[in-house]
Amino acid sequence: MHVLITAGPTREYLDDVRYLTNASSGKMGYALAQAARDSGWDVTLVTGPVEINPPVGCTVLPVVTTAEMLAAATDAFPNCDGVIAAAAVCDYRPRQRTAGKISKTGGGITLEMIETDDVLAALGAKKEHRWVLGFALEAQNPHENALQKLRRKNCDWIVLNAPSAVGSDDNSVELIDPTGEIQAQWTGSKSAIARDLIAWIGRIRSASA
């Protein structure tokens, strides 16, 4: 099995020193990469900027912006059996990036924001015979919003977690299929959840082979 895993945050720059990002630590994605390697899988890890070291034996593709993550993931995906999209990409970026550093003027500024490229949707649209597992972090109406994301982005399954997971060593997740059925629920350390999820995928893929 060769799996593509996206992990960590992305950054979208306002100028050459300031950027928009989020609090993702990359711990879930890196735990999944470790669990996959421990299971004997080949792993290509496309990772945004984080402060943890990737598991030994992964092919690591470091990126910064959402566009860079999309390009790296799209290029790697055809050589993989599936993807686990655990990255927390920025949904918006400034329409224009200012060269240098924006100086104070004594007043407010207005930024025009536009949507970034949708990495998960792009991979779902190109999946063909490959499987796609996404992550959804939802605060309101979580189950329904996660299910809509699964269907809209052509995922085979989606992992629902809450905002409390960001930056934490622990998590509580539901694994949802396209019918809306909860296939599994896990609570505990991200490392333990990653091992359970990788084992679940392995069983499902073996059963369908």
Tell me about this structure:
This protein is globular. 38% of the residues are buried. It is built from five helices and twelve strands. It has one domain (2-94, 112-208): 3-Layer(aba) Sandwich (Rossmann fold). The mean pLDDT is 95. A hairpin with a 5-residue loop joins strand 11 (170-176) and strand 12. The longest helix has 19 residues, at 190-208. It has helices at 27-38, 66-76, 119-125, 142-152, 190-208, and strands at residues 2-7, 12-13, 19-20, 42-47, 59-62, 82-85, 92-94, 113-115, 131-137, 157-161, 170-176, 182-189. With 209 residues, it is of the alpha/beta class. The strands form three sheets. Strands 5-4-1-6-9-10-11-12 form an eight-stranded mixed β-sheet, sandwiched between helices. The protein has a two-stranded antiparallel sheet with strand order 2-3. The protein has a two-stranded antiparallel ribbon with strand order 7-8.
